[in-house]
Amino acid sequence: MAHMKQRVAITLKLPQLQNLIKRDPASYKEEFLMQKRHFDSELEIFKLRPTKESDRFTELVTFMSHVGVCYKDECSLLPTSIMELLETHANILHTDVRAKLLQSLIMLRNKGMLDPLILIKLSFKLFSVTDKTLRSSLVEYIFNDIKTINHQKQNDKLNRSIQAFLFSVVEEDTTITARKTVEILCELYRRKIWTDARTVNMIGKACLSPSTRVTVAAVNFFLGIENKMHEDEEEEKASGDKTPADVNYHSHSKKTKKRARVVQKQIEHNAKLRRDSQKESSTTTPLFPAIQMLHDPQSLAEKLFKKLRQSGERFEVKLLLMNFVSRLIGCHKLLLLSFYSFLQRYLTSHQQDITLILAYLIQGCHELIPPEDLLPIVKAIAYNFITERCTNESIAVGINAVREIIARSPALLREPGMGDFVQDLAMYGRKTHKSVMIAAHGMVNLVRELYPTLLKKGDRGKHHNPNAQPFEYGQRPVADGVEGVELLEAYERGEIELNSDDEVVWNEDKDEEEEEEGEEEEEE
Question: Where is the composition biased (Basic and acidic residues) (predicted)?
């Protein structure tokens, strides 16, 4: 009983001793060494029964992690001892003990007694422990630690080391660890901490993971990260208005010393806001869309399409992959011709989410695709959507889809039989149903601009260009001058000026406005 009272007394004194040591480490070294011997013995005892909860041991661990920085030589092995305990017995440790040990390691890392990469590697090993609270703490720590490392400036050497480790995790692991890695990478990009091509391509590699959950997380990053970042910026602007406010100079009030101080504070505050705003605008680097930073989009699209064709996943996952593959094709102007024949099987009016599939099809069209490969797609849409047996809504959807495909690949209009097809679509402009009529008029307007001779004379319009034709496949327009050079020449001749908003104003228009204002003043 006396022994128990002594131990309790020592435990109660630990926070007080901790405070005294931080103030004067040299004077309390003996007391520290005594507590260190207690810690070593408690550690050995705890290793014999790691499943038990030990308040005494966790108190000593917390104490040692707080004061260890004051006695670095004596505590050089402290991080290693705690890490070995976590690595060996992580799965069987009591929840509270495990959390205390992790907190102690994070504290030692913050005090510079532990290399960040070593603790990050341990953190990823601990993801295998079935403890949601622990996983949340690990994700929060890893994110905050990398954020702290890059707070003042980018630590490229350490970043490369951490990224190399994370890349190996994404590439080799298919468990919860890989999913948490992708989650951390996405959050780092979203918070503009890691926005380099290396990070983006690591997430791109995760799209090919055997784990469906990892694939879905990585694909959703590419499809929606820009929208999320825009929302974050809008929320930040809304939460903290940093525009300089109008200064109340008390022009019509009595001048007092207090009012003078308030005015001076307002002036200084506005000056600070302007300096911060200028600093932000000068240091902000342009951020390209993540999908544009992929090193080998063709290979990624081919592998994802192979995965799409062979997968037995639920239809929502297939839609997600269709969306990403089509966006890769459209953004990078890739050639993946079998993708269109694959989508053709889904082009029926009763297909689930058909509007989404049509949108993905249109998204993946561009002028470099051979028109003979897109012609079967257009015919399939016409057969399944634009017939008298279809509903008015289906007809409108079909005509709009054909119009968008032709707008992205105008060479389609040069294919045989497209003249009769376009004229048939123009006939739907006489339908009484509003959506069908609008869709048909939109189609006529597009063809009138690209290739008006395909239309009947009554549909070509009064001011059409009879010589307008779309380029043949593979033909590209060649510039014979610099776009906008005529404005520069007019500016040099003094015919135009720039107003305060940097907008172009022709001097003739300016003179006319002045004359009109003068006439209005005379009439008044």
Answer: 232-244
